[in-house]
Design brief:
disordered N terminus; disordered C terminus; 15 helices; single chain; three-stranded antiparallel β-sheet; alpha+beta
Length: about 425
């Protein structure tokens, strides 16, 4: 789940990176194993925004879209009004939300691609997608044709990678399409080359778990479908077996989850209202009950979710006790990195690659997740302090393992459930 803060208005195109960023942070090379890291150039106070950044490319998860989480195809802004969203998630079609003015979704601004009817939150987003990658990906009248190469690629991915997704074949597709459409292809290739794309950590001989032998058949099928749908001679190396694995690893190890929610935005707007005590208590009780209803009906999957490649954010190394965290308070893909504590000049800025629940697991469990997904052994202060603990897997992980792979159709060992 993601925390969505109150928005200050609609999406407006912004530069990929504000020049102000560089007065706060700098990227440094650390060593051969860790690579680069992000460091503070000046004192940063707890709660301060370290930087804001747009992704080079992002995409909604395919299962998330299939389950009717409607999001802008470019910036992932939720397209459902808060009330519409709450009705669907709670299973209550007659639900009425108080204070409707706190919903910032503007349906009158939404636009569809005139060829394939993919939806955007604004004309600016529609044009931005068209200019960057959508010309190469637009299916036109074939949007619903199951035999179209791109639809076959998407269907294969869904059959291999059951929810919850943590990456997307469409992120790779948009990378390819961005370069195909670009006048200056070298510019985009240089940007994408700055992401780490190792398929293994040579120092520790840790291989990305989805590049192991048991997935070779699935990866070969994906590569063939990917090549049929998107091949471009300028990107020949991305379509070779080795290049495809490298691209797959790049997306899997660098993709940052993005979550947007018009309902969460409405809740934060309501939280900021100055109300008489009785009205405040009534509103808080209403919201509490709403979330209970949603939990009973829908569970934890509340948001429009996808992933993106953020150049500066990807320079942040992991810590099990992070001093910064990423969030998406504008209800779109604009990432805000916020300090969780005071950060001194010269101090490395670290985020957690683990979610809140995973961070509470044992050192052994945390290391297992990080080794398999991100190809490194964590040596953060917390892990060092727990070095003498026995290598015992957390009870939570054992519980999770009992139910893995019970999705219809494939055995657990044959499913891509954790890219």
């Amino acid at each position: 789940m993601f925390n969505i803060c109150r928005s200050n208005g609609g999406y407006k195109p912004v530069a990929l990176m504000s020049s102000k960023v560089w007065s706060y942070v700098e990227v440094r090379t650390i060593d051969k194993v860790k690579g680069k890291g992000l460091f503070a150039k000046k004192a940063i106070r707890k709660g301060e925004t370290v930087f804001m950044e747009r992704p080079l490319v992002c995409a909604q998860f395919l299962w998330n879209a299939l389950y009717k989480y409607r999001a802008c195809d470019y910036c992932l802004r939720s397209l459902e009004a808060a009330e519409e969203n709450a009705r669907r998630l709670s299973g209550n079609p007659s639900l009425i939300l108080p204070y409707p003015e706190q919903c910032r979704v503007r349906p009158e601004l939404h636009q569809a691609c005139p060829q394939c009817q993919v939806m955007y939150c604004s004309s600016e987003c529609r044009q931005a997608a068209l200019d960057q990658y959508h010309r190469a990906l637009c299916l036109g009248l074939s949007q619903e044709d199951p035999e179209h190469p791109i639809n076959k690629l998407q269907d294969a991915w869904r059959n291999m990678h059951f929810p919850p997704e943590t990456s997307s074949i469409m992120l790779m597709s948009r990378m390819v399409s961005t370069v195909k459409q670009a006048k200056d292809k070298g510019h985009w290739l240089k940007l994408f080359s700055q992401f780490c794309s190792r398929t293994a950590n040579e120092e520790e001989e840790i291989a990305h778990k989805l590049l192991g032998e048991k997935f070779q058949g699935q990866l070969a099928l994906l590569r063939n479908l990917f090549t049929t749908a998107l091949y471009d001679e300028h990107l020949n190396r991305w379509f070779t077996p080795e290049g495809f694995l490298s691209l797959f690893s790049l997306v899997g190890t660098n993709g940052q989850g993005i979550g947007t929610s018009s309902l969460s935005q409405w809740v934060h707007g309501c939280d900021a209202l100055e109300l008489p005590r009785q009205q405040r208590e009534q509103l808080d009780a209403f919201i509490d009950q709403l979330y209970k209803d949603i939990e009973r009906e829908t569970g934890d999957f509340l948001n429009c979710e996808g992933s993106g490649l953020f150049l500066l954010q990807s320079s942040c190394n992991h810590s099990c006790i992070p001093n910064a965290e990423a969030s998406f308070p504008d209800n779109n893909f604009l990432l805000h990195l916020t300090a969780l504590c005071d950060i001194g000049p010269g101090e490395e800025i670290c985020i957690s690659y683990l979610d809140c629940c995973q961070r509470e697991r044992s050192r052994h469990s945390r290391h297992k997740i990080l080794r398999e997904n991100y190809l490194f052994l964590c040596t953060c202060p917390r892990c060092i302090s727990q070095a003498d603990e026995p290598d015992v897997t957390s009870e939570e992980e054992e519980d999770d393992g009992e139910g893995e792979g019970e999705t219809e159709g494939d055995e657990a060992e044959d499913e891509m459930t954790d890219v």
